[in-house]
Write a sequence for this structure.
């Protein structure tokens, strides 16, 4: 939770039996030099919670879950419409979901994590909603897909920010999603679909 200006995140070393955190400074850093000992002194930033790099790393860890949930949503829409989407269509939706993380990372370097997350969510939601509406020839299914992605990305954002209860909340949400999928796929063999 501490970041030294002009340095890396630090590493722990054993010095005289004690754990000491050592920071390596960038050669270009111009800190203030103490006249008494000739050491370079730097400012300290105390990070409240997490920084943008940590949040980007966390959201990337949810990638497979988001892709899997989106594929299940499209599969359920397939069953309801009695239409089978082509494997290429699944691949294209998966590619657009992967691009979410690239857009979030690249845009986040300029505008910060939250703004980039919102933009990446909206772009991904709109592209996939439009695509699914064209695949199924149904605006309703496009809206359902876009709204589903908005909910999924909103829940994941909340989970990343709710540091104290995120594991419990995430587990409960996964159970709810599993129950929804079980209810919607329970009669899959009876439909001869």
């Amino acid at each position: 939770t501490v970041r030294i200006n002009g340095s890396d995140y630090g590493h722990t070393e054993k010095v005289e039996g004690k754990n000491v955190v050592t920071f390596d400074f960038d050669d270009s850093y111009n800190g203030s030099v103490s006249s008494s000992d000739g050491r370079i002194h730097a400012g300290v930033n105390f990070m409240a919670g997490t920084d943008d790099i940590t949040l980007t790393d966390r959201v990337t860890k949810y990638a497979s879950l988001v892709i899997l949930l989106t594929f299940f949503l499209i599969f359920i829409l397939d069953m309801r419409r009695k239409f089978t989407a082509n494997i290429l269509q699944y691949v294209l939706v998966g590619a657009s979901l992967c691009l979410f993380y690239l857009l979030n990372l690249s845009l986040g370097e300029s505008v910060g994590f939250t703004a980039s997350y919102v933009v990446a969510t909206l772009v991904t939601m709109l592209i996939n909603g439009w695509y699914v509406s064209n695949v199924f020839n149904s605006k309703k299914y496009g809206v359902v897909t876009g709204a589903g992605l908005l909910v999924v990305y909103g829940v994941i954002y909340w989970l990343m920010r709710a540091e104290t209860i995120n594991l419990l909340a995430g587990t409960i949400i996964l159970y709810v999603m599993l129950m929804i999928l079980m209810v919607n796929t329970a009669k899959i063999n009876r439909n001869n679909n």
Notes: The longest strand covers residues 11-15. The first helix runs from residue 52 to 61. The radius of gyration is 23 Å.
